[in-house]
């Protein structure tokens, strides 16, 4: 039986102020925030897991379990940069969690049962600094340039995505949203994103 899109949204943020705005926007379009899969929704759980193993495989495993039980996430809304360490660490890979989700989607799309897979991401920013650093807002495919692994087979899949705009666009929609904007602007932007993505 083919897996379909769920009415659930994964939210990963350290900015509690915007959670209400996001919930209001999602309520408007009949969606809910995932709360019962801690490795997908709790930064403390993610950080503890990463600190123990140094890896993020447990997040991919939880995402796969979620998809099998609930369907594809309707969207993933997350801070554009997240320190994966429980401690302040200027040298940490602030894209580690975002990259984990991107790689998971790239791997999953090869499975026959995941034919309808679509990764809809809203990255929460503070002003324009993230766009200046990465260019992802004007060129979402730039996100793939962040990726590389120790696994040659996965790297082949990543390279396919890097080399084909059509392939990237068939799997990913990535949009930036300045979280410092007003509640109404945030809500409107999220509703607009959700209604234009499948």
Report on the architecture of this protein.
It is a single chain. The chain is an alpha/beta fold and 198 residues long. It contains nine helices and five strands, in the order βαβαααβαβαααβα. It has helices spanning 16-28, 38-41, 43-53, 57-70, 96-108, 129-134, 152-163, 165-171, 183-196, and strands at residues 8-12, 32-33, 75-79, 119-125, 172-178. The chain has a five-stranded parallel sheet, with helices on both faces. β3 (75-79), α5 (96-108) and β4 form a beta-alpha-beta unit. α1 crosses α9 (183-196) and α4 (57-70) packs across α5 (96-108). The protein is globular and about 45 Å long. The model has no long low-confidence stretch (mean pLDDT 93).
Provide a brief overview of the structure.
This protein has 198 residues and is α/β, with parallel strands linked by helices.
What does the secondary structure layout of this molecule look like, with pairings?
Elements: E1 8-12, H1 16-28, E2 32-33, H2 38-41, H3 43-53, H4 57-70, E3 75-79, H5 96-108, E4 119-125, H6 129-134, H7 152-163, H8 165-171, E5 172-178, H9 183-196
Parallel strand pairs: 1-2, 1-3, 3-4, 4-5
Key words describing this protein structure:
198 residues, alpha/beta, five-stranded parallel beta sheet, 9 helices, 47% helix, globular
Annotation field: number of helices: 9
Note the run of SSEs as H and E. EHEHHHEHEHHHEH
Kindly provide the radius of gyration, computed on alpha-carbon positions and rounded to a whole number of angstroms: 16 Å
Structural shape:
globular
Major beta-sheet overview? 5 strands, parallel
The number of strands is 5
Helix content: 40-55%
Strand order of the largest sheet: 2-1-3-4-5
Strand content: 5-15%
């Amino acid at each position: 039986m083919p897996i379909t899109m769920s009415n659930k949204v994964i939210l990963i943020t350290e900015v509690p102020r915007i959670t209400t705005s996001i919930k209001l926007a999602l309520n408007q379009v009949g969606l809910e925030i995932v709360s019962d899969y801690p490795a997908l929704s709790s930064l403390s759980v993610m950080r503890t897991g990463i600190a123990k193993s140094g890896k993020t495989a447990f997040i991919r495993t939880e995402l796969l379990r979620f998809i099998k039980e609930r369907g594809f996430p309707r969207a993933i809304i997350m801070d554009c940069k997240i320190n994966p360490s429980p401690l302040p660490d200027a040298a940490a890979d602030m894209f580690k969690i975002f990259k984990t989700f991107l790689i998971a989607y790239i791997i999953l799309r090869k499975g026959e049962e995941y034919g309808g897979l679509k990764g809809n991401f809203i990255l929460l920013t503070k002003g324009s600094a993230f766009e200046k650093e990465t260019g992802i807002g004007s060129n979402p495919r730039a996100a793939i340039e962040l990726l590389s692994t120790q696994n040659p087979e996965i790297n082949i899949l990543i390279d396919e995505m890097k080399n084909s705009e059509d392939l990237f666009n068939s799997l990913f929609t990535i949009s930036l949203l300045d979280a410092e904007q007003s509640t109404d602007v945030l809500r409107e932007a999220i509703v607009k994103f959700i209604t234009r993505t499948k």
